[in-house]
Fold:
Amino acid sequence: MHRASIYGSEGEEENEVLFAQTIMKKQLTGTVISNKMQKTVVVRVERLKEHPKYKRRFRVHKKYKAHAEIGEYKVGDKVIIEECRPISKDKRWRVIKKVDEK
Structure:
């Protein structure tokens, strides 16, 4: 069977391929808690979670190792990290930019 007959036309197939390539990646905002490794920072991301029965909200946090090519990030900096391909055993995130606190 011809591919154009499956998708209707060749233009639709190209649009689906372009859509698949432009899927947004997850982005998280957190605080740098360690920069002692080369090209890696540890970022603590906090979020609010609600108890299913009692409906009280509480803070939970998770630590992510993120790739930082240049060592411009210091402990306490607010940064935005984005998911990426696996860089090492633990690193699946990359630092995008520093968030200005004013």
